[in-house]
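Sample pair:
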Amino acid sequence: MKKQLAKKQSLPIQLEQSGPADLSDRLEFEELNRGIIRFDEAIDEFNTSDYMRKISYLESKGFKKIRFFITSPGGSAYHAMALYDRLIALKNNKIKTEAYVEGMAASAASMIILQAMQKRFATANARFLIHEPRRWVSFSMERASDMQDSTKEMVTLSGIVLNIMAKRCKISRSQLSNMITRKEIWMSSIEALKIGLIDGIVK
């Protein structure tokens, strides 16, 4: 007997009056209808689409405040910037956003996503990672001109990310650049608070 595999759809697409049947999905559905979205996975093309749908769902329901709980290893800077622009648009539409970092906000999650939130909080033991934007290359051959184009794009991308961070942090753009150039910087919640990466620590 052949088994039929059902493709799981993102929550706002599969919602019915009775709500989803699966326990995990049901709990997520209940949180969503309290104005809560969890950024708890890598920021990639699949998860970004899911996050976008959830934001649009809450916006269509007339929510005036959305709370985001973040435990993310980061991911694509490009997908993170798409989310950044979407979150900034919420602010322009008079919708408040609050972020709560639990566990960690690494890379694009701390340097881009977190900086789009109007209020940014973290638990006492949360960890943060900031570094230069990276480009992953796997088993591919490049011409010298390709490498020049890639380098130019990475420099541009680094500048955009630094500008995003400098708008909210308590240290200058040049200080931020010096911090992350050729280095990975892990920080505690207290250290993140000192440089203005977050606004407060939840005790």
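The CA atoms of residues 11 and 29 lie 7 Å apart.
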